[in-house]
Amino acid sequence: MSAPINRFHLLALAALLALPACTRSDPTAALSSGLVPRGEISGGLEPMGGPPTLSAGMPVSDTMATGSTQAMAPTQVAALAPAPSPAGAMVGDVQFLPVVGAPPAKAELLAGALSRNAAARGIVIRPAAGPVAALRLKGYFSTLTEGRRTMLVYVWDVLDSSGARLTRISGQEPASGTGGSDPWSAIGPQTIDAVAARTLTEAAGLLSRQG
Questions:
Q1: Assuming Cys at both sites, which of 43, 68, 102, 104 could form a disulfide with 141, CB separation 3.0 to 4.6 Å?
Q2: Domain 92-210 class in CATH
Q3: Kind of pairing between the strands at 136-146 and 92-100
């Protein structure tokens, strides 16, 4: 005659019968519960420096996707920025807008003089038609003749990126020759080079103070 089955034996038997059911549970349950590390969601570890990869069917907002890509992708800012000139430490970018009052030939001389003198003062000249720089200069030129002496008079409106005037750079430079009936003919490369040098020195000072 078999011994009677007490309550303890019944509980032990019930536990043994329930154990296989636990081992046959859904293997994807941990994914939905968030127990799996994020790298395993996509089937592998995330590459260093690369954007995160998400498994199919995981909704993600456009904002989150864009933000993640921007944060993880390598930046190229240093490679795209102009290299500082060996002649001097770079202090900033300047745009020169078309000048008013100077004949085309003198305006061309001025453009060349500005280009030659910019590097020595740590200035990079950006094209006027390109992206707006933090500092833009709009120039006004005229000549002043007193007796046999001719002066080149210049005024630069210094504008910020919004077009608001910050200050003015102005001065006058004696002509290197005599003009006769046309005072502009007395304005030679030496005079224009001096104006360019003074203008860029003032602009470099403004950029340095801007930080």
A1: 102
A2: alpha beta
A3: parallel
What is the residue extent of each domain of the chain? Answer: 92-210
User: Which pTM was predicted?
Assistant: 0.58
Number of residues assigned to the chain: 211
Q: What is the pLDDT of residue 97?
A: 96
Contact (CB, 8 A) for 197 and 172: no
| Chain position carrying tokens 């104006």 | 195
**pLDDT, tens digit (0-9, with 9 covering 90-100), for 135-190:** 999 999 999 998 889 999 999 999 999 999 999 999 999 998 776 789 999 999 99
174, 186 contact by CB (below 8 A): no
**Residue 15 CA to chain centroid, in angstroms?**
67
Listed in sequence order, the residues at least 6 apart from 96 whose beta carbon sits closer than 8 Å to its beta carbon are 111, 114, 125, 128, 136, 137, 139
Across the beta sheet with 123-126, the strand order is 123-126, 92-100, 136-146, 149-159, 165-174
The number of angstroms, rounded, from the C-alpha of 105 to the middle of its chain's C-alpha atoms is: 34
Residue 148 has a pLDDT of 85
Contact 186, 150 (CB under 8 A): yes
- Is pLDDT above 60 for 127? yes
Helix (H) or strand (E) holding 174: strand 165-174
